[in-house]
Design brief:
Chains A, B: Its EC number is 3.4.17.19. The structure is a homodimer of 496-residue chains. The first copy, chain A, is mostly helical. In chain A, 64% of the residues lie in helices and 3% in strands. Chain A has two domains: 143 residues, no CATH class; 352 residues, Neurolysin, domain 3 (Orthogonal Bundle), CATH 1.10.1370. Chain A contains 21 helices and three strands. The model of chain A has no long low-confidence stretch (mean pLDDT 93).
Amino acid sequence: MREKFRELVKRKNRIHANLELIQWDLETKTPLKSRPYLSELVGELSMQDYALSTSDEFVNLVEELNKQKETLTEIEKREIELSMEEIEKKKKIPADEYEDYAKLTSYNQTVWEEAKAKKDFSIVKEGLKKIFDYNKKFATYRRKDEKTLYDVLLNDYEKGMDTERLDVFFSELKKEIVPFLKKIQEKKKTIKEVDKISVPIDEDVQLKFAKFLSSYVGFDFEKGLVETSEHPFTLNLNKNDVRLTTKNKKDSPMSTVFSIIHESGHGIYEQQTGDELIDTLLGTGGSMGLHESQSRFMENIVGANKAFWKPLYNKAGEFYPFLKDIEFEEFYKQINRIEPGLIRVEADELTYSLHIMLRYEIEKMLINGEINIDDLPKIWNEKVKEYLGLEPKNDSEGLMQDIHWYCGLIGYFPSYAIGNAYASQIYNAMKKDFDVEKALENQDLKKITDWLGEKIHKYGLLKDTPTIIKEVTGEELNPKYYIEYLKEKYSKIYEI
Amino acid sequence: MREKFRELVKRKNRIHANLELIQWDLETKTPLKSRPYLSELVGELSMQDYALSTSDEFVNLVEELNKQKETLTEIEKREIELSMEEIEKKKKIPADEYEDYAKLTSYNQTVWEEAKAKKDFSIVKEGLKKIFDYNKKFATYRRKDEKTLYDVLLNDYEKGMDTERLDVFFSELKKEIVPFLKKIQEKKKTIKEVDKISVPIDEDVQLKFAKFLSSYVGFDFEKGLVETSEHPFTLNLNKNDVRLTTKNKKDSPMSTVFSIIHESGHGIYEQQTGDELIDTLLGTGGSMGLHESQSRFMENIVGANKAFWKPLYNKAGEFYPFLKDIEFEEFYKQINRIEPGLIRVEADELTYSLHIMLRYEIEKMLINGEINIDDLPKIWNEKVKEYLGLEPKNDSEGLMQDIHWYCGLIGYFPSYAIGNAYASQIYNAMKKDFDVEKALENQDLKKITDWLGEKIHKYGLLKDTPTIIKEVTGEELNPKYYIEYLKEKYSKIYEI
């Protein structure tokens, strides 16, 4: 019976790898007229995966093995536990609706690309409405004792998380961060800040620098690769095949830098999952919040660290010659400049949470039926005005800036904020073990990735996120480390 | 019954598209440590295709429909005819051997790459031996009334072709071409020829020029793309997704030019197969010889034509600045210089046949058991010495230069010679309809590709090659047009 289970798991993993490969192609290079066909193929493979996971054979096997847990290895026990949850979830969604939805989310990504390029929300509005409708419907099917429909979705990305706890979490951040931000803005009026770096750099050169940086922070090119796409992402066939993208905009060469360090954080996590988890259901990174903690750790705590850039600054000038004309101290201040902006992925560390809060509030209302898609542009722009004091010129720099909703990731955004908080909490724990800044200055990034690999990455899905966070940091999610980290760092930079 | 057949065909096409996509990835970018897994996936999908094609359901359906041909459309009739042949063939090969072989040929390509890079035939020798052994074995299973085992394989790529006819074909070429080549070599002694173009050009720039040229000759980037790989090839998921590669060697920028025009010829053929053949078994190009006629037509008759380059020469100088220092007439002579060399894909039009003859003779002997793999390096080098008067410095510029044998393409090489002959025969017919050189000078490549599309491409596999050639040119394969074309062109260039 265990052998049969292993065989089906292997089969599931192959379908997954195949799916990811086609997705990769669709996102990075599929010719225009080939997209509908490959999207159909994605639908068919998702259907195969779905059929396998809900087949009598697989379900019976899991339920039988679940009854004899004591005979199983630790890995198998966890596989069965997660499979029981998946079975639960999938059984409640009718097969044809699931297939339709898979095709829809896959195809709609290319529609979103077009709509964004043309700055025309109407092109993708209908698709987005369908995606939200499906999510509401699925949440209705699956709802047990969750207080709201939105709570059902939240749980998919961060198990155990609910609206109640999140409301508290965000209000805590708000309470501390907003006045601190105000202080900085007051101080900014009295100092002369350098202009934002925006010297144009060829896309080819940006890609080369991206590959260099990715390798520098520890991404292994024998087990992965880097290309370009409309929106940066990380995808993995398995731990030996992890793929990152970057979007190289000629006029903002620094975006590429932080975006690729971010994705590398995701990628290294996947590459460092344990070898013993290959061909199991556990050989991939944990919850979204934990995954984001790894990417944000790399992007901000490592990649925006003075000690990271110090030994690297001359080298960086070889790729981006304009850096040779900027003093290092000035560069450091510049990459950590606080400035409310419209684009989430370009936001500084302080205003970032406001971007997330806004999305959290809107998707919560949409799913819970308090507003609908037609209201979206208006509400988005009102909240941007309220939180950031800004007005989007068009929907491409407003509600169409992120791919998430358009490919079905609803309830995902809060993970970014949770990830930031986890990252600081993990950083606090790491510092007790060794001098992180010294490792960065010594260009010994391996010390950091080894530590993360040993404490977090190697477990894959074997342990759940709350357990890992507890073991690594000694306590549960606590926003105080995030708040302290931000205050300490930016008090220094802005001398307040 | 017909509906069921359509459904299975659609399924077959999807498996094919999926397979091609993974092959594309393996050839162009799969990370080193991911290759074995993706090769396994290829094996599994080939197995699915095999299982479907040999399933009782499919076989019975085909056999039943074969009995009621009069009720079928023209397309269905031809599908059933080809399916009957495929069933015949596959039924004779045991499933497990077929699966092993598919994995072997897929994986062995990467071994070949390594062996070629390290100039060490011993790395890939064992793999090559297995591939030849499998081909011998399969030919033995499948042999009916063919005179030799090799004839069985020949038939796979060029139906109706046999050793007897090929021996005559090659001896005809030999009889005419060898003395003509001698004349040219005598003349060469009395003239001063310019040095071969070998100014280094960045690989990135070469790729940009390759994309430009591909588009210029009519390859449609909404239905295809161009990337790089170890060995140039064309692959198609379907007519809306055709993918070409080029190998850009910094030191020989002109190789890229002719290689991409060659592959574009293949690609345009696929893109122009009829829309009514989508989702049938006929939506792809015909026999290998006919396919090669299209690529060689583009590469030589179009791409090495004075009228092709005349209006393009200034533009070419923008990509390859060294061209600005070369007079156009000199350039034209240079790209059509006759000079025996070691590498087939870089061979001039005259000595090209000698490269094919050599491969034809060797693979014929290997399959018929007259020599074995251990003898290969010695025999290869002896024949190269005999036919071309040259000695390879190592096996990478000898028997490892072409991917074909290493991925199982045995009996394929003769198609190149047949393709050349067809190309000249087709060119002769085209000239009766319009002034081809004038179209080239007017940059009206569409006139040429439309003609090819209408007369050849649109039929896909609906008609067989002998029928198409007969309809287009009024007669069967006849090497005289090839010989006339070569003599006329090179008599002018060398003024003999």
